[in-house]
Amino acid sequence: MNVETRSLVRFSETFIQLFATDNNKCFETAQRYFNRIRSTLCAIKKVFQKTTPRSMVQLPEGAAQPTVFERSSLSYGACVIDMYGLASYDDCVQQLYHKLETLLATAATTLGLCHRMIESEEMIRQDVQQLKDIYHDSCNQLMGSVREFASFLGSVQQLPETELNRRRKSARSLDDFLKKEYHNVPRQEFKQYVWLEAVRQGHNDGLSEEETYLFHDNHERVRQVRWVIEHFDELNVEGQQGKLDSTILVYFLKWCGVGQTKEKRLYQYFCDTYRGRYSLLVWSAVSKERKDQRESGITDRGAAATFQQMIEKLQEEAAVV
Hints:
Elements: H1 2-12, H2 26-38, H3 40-50, H4 68-71, H5 91-126, H6 128-143, H7 146-155, H8 163-170, H9 174-181, H10 187-204, H11 209-214, H12 219-230, H13 246-256, H14 263-273, H15 283-295, H16 300-320
Helix pairs in contact: 1-5, 2-5, 13-15, 13-16
């Protein structure tokens, strides 16, 4: 029970915020089993019930109905507690009592957690905006996995239609689809659905698989990035010894807005696409400059804003010409 309880507590930390998990029904399943364990109280309750006097006294308004454990003669008034206290029994009896007490208390606490999570899950399912936020956050997390996505692309020769994709097409609306599939689809199936849909939409918008991975949530940005790389030499980007300026390269990476975990992959995309006259830098040099900028207090937003000003200036000059 302790192992199961620890697992449930750990699951509860992220369960609601994930659209699909490997333990979609863990709280419903645990609730059934823990209810069975807690139901052992029923037999004990029947014993106490037989020794509880009936009372026809009307309870005051707002007063809670006393339990049989409180009213039974086994619980109060019939004997002196000290006379038959737990301490008078052997150690094995005391240990058994404490184990049972802990067992029932843990069952009750875990049941409370299960009830709370099931209620929260249902509240999310009825809140369309929160449900959409969770769905998009989960998609973004999956698209942020560099190795997994790259491995997936390498294993797929075509874009098959998954069962989840078919259900999405048959749903009356995105809202209905999200309500029905929230915590009802295995994580691996959801991964495949997200990746296939991202690649399919990328192809429809003229993006390569690499561009889809880097800019899955902003396809319009790809057009801008392509234009910037094409005109990169016009941004005064010459560094030392005929190489590109590492400072400008870091500004470019931050302006793209793909997140730090994808920046190395983005730089490789830049190297594969760049056709200018300056020599490329190795990634370690760019990474060092990125670290130096961070330590000097230059924020990602500040670097992106600086690069945006450079682009706007270049566009204004091109318009004049």
